[in-house]
Write a structure and sequence with these properties.
Length: 140
């Protein structure tokens, strides 16, 4: 897997009363990383959505290893773990600025038609995305 990196400053509003990043904010950071990965491949979610296709999360998992706190930087590493032509599984690793692993996770997505939420073939609707995902998931 080839990971791309995105850095986010931990903001005060993202922490809880203990000064630790609130757990749900990691899911937002997963999305930031996923969006940057897609952009690094030359695409944008907004372009897909403009054509009536959505990419909902069908499963998400996070495993917390070490807390991040206000004032630190979160280094989000994102990769395509699996790609079937219909389903995409993204892998995430979030580190602090000392390169200590804080969170790992995966999210699973399918592309669906907005009007009926029926799955579509990415290869058929977006052949350029398909080719880029095949190359990225094979480590090329």
């Amino acid at each position: 897997m080839k990971f791309i990196e995105t850095i986010v400053d931990v903001r005060y509003a993202e922490t809880d009363q203990m000064g630790v990043v609130y757990h749900a904010n990691y899911l937002v950071w997963f999305e930031i990383g996923r969006t940057k990965l897609i952009e690094s491949l030359g695409f944008k979610y907004a372009d897909m959505e403009a054509q009536g296709i959505l990419s909902p999360v069908t499963d998400i998992q996070a495993s917390y290893k070490k807390p991040l706190t206000y004032g630190q930087q979160a280094i989000i590493k994102t990769a395509i773990k699996e790609y079937s032509g219909i389903k995409v599984v993204y892998a995430y690793e979030i580190y602090n600025e000392n390169h200590e692993l804080c969170v790992t996770g995966i999210s699973t997505h399918v592309c669906v038609k907005k009007e009926n939420f029926r799955p579509i073939s990415i290869k058929k609707y977006f052949p350029e995305w398909h080719n880029a995902y095949v190359n990225a998931s094979s480590g090329s």
